[in-house]
Structures are given as structure tokens and as C-alpha cells.
Amino acid sequence: MWRTALLAFGLALPLPLSAVTNQSFQVSATITPGCLIVGGGVNYGSLNYGSYSALATSTVTAAMTGGITLQCTPGVALSVSVDGGLHSTSGRNLKHSSGSAQVGYQLFRDAAFSQSLGVSQSVSVSYSDANNIRLPIYGRVVLPGNQPNGTYSDTLQVQLSW
């Protein structure tokens, strides 16, 4: 009887199985569209109309320079919006640094000054090189010829979306 119990125990032990040494697993990634802001820090650029006589009555234009470059996933829909600035009453205004005098100015999204960039208007930014995108912002001011001399300035907030 004892021998039968041992034999029964011996049959209950598992037999060694061959180990699986070759198997596969899945790898995947999802790339979402987006943009990267390169350079410029907190300054997206500047629009400098230059220096003119206090009696000048000409129309002066400028393109935004310096600041940032954007890099976007190819095909991403990029938009920009610019607020009215610190001195917006009935449009954008440059304000004298030590007084209340103001000079109105306009922004455009093309170098021909044919496409106005309204206050807080969201507009598409088109680009051909997804790794070198500049914000297309151009300005025009009509010098009134009767303002006090000094520095006139404004600060605008830019919002990017994609």
C-alpha cells in the first residue's frame, strides 16, 4: 500500500515543458499635430516705424522683425490673433511716452497692406516651410504732422492657435 501511494505521488509531478524563446509584441506611437515656438522668449517680435519729424505727414509702413520662429507639424492649421493693444479706444494707437498724445495705426497680414488684421480677429497663417514659419504682421501709420515730439509706443498681445 505504501508503494502504491508513492507511485501515485510520482505520477502527479508535472513534466518539464519546453520554454518559449521566440515571441512578438506590438509597438505603436501616435503623433499629434502641433507647433513649437523657437526663440524670442516672451517677445514675439517688434514693429518699428522709425524716426520722423514732428511735422511729417507721410504714410509709414513696417514689417514685424525679430522675435520668434514657429515650427509646426506639416499641414497643421495655424491661426494668429492680435488684440487692440494697451491704448485701444477706437482702433490701435501709439501713445506718447510722457503724455496723452496718440497716433493711430493699423495692422495687416500681407506686405501689400491689402488684408487688414482687425482687433482680436483670428486669421490663418499660411506657410510653405513647416520648420520656418514667421508671423505675417505688417503695420501702417499715417503721421499727422501735429503731434508732440517724443517716443510713441504700444504693446500688443498675440494669441496663436492650432
From TrEMBL:
Alphabetical list of InterPro entries matching this protein: Spore_coat_component, Spore_coat_U/FanG
Domain Spore coat protein U/FanG: 22-158
Record's protein name: Spore coat protein
Membrane-spanning intervals of the chain: none
Keywords (A to Z) from UniProt: Capsid protein, Signal, Virion
Residues of the signal peptide: 1-19
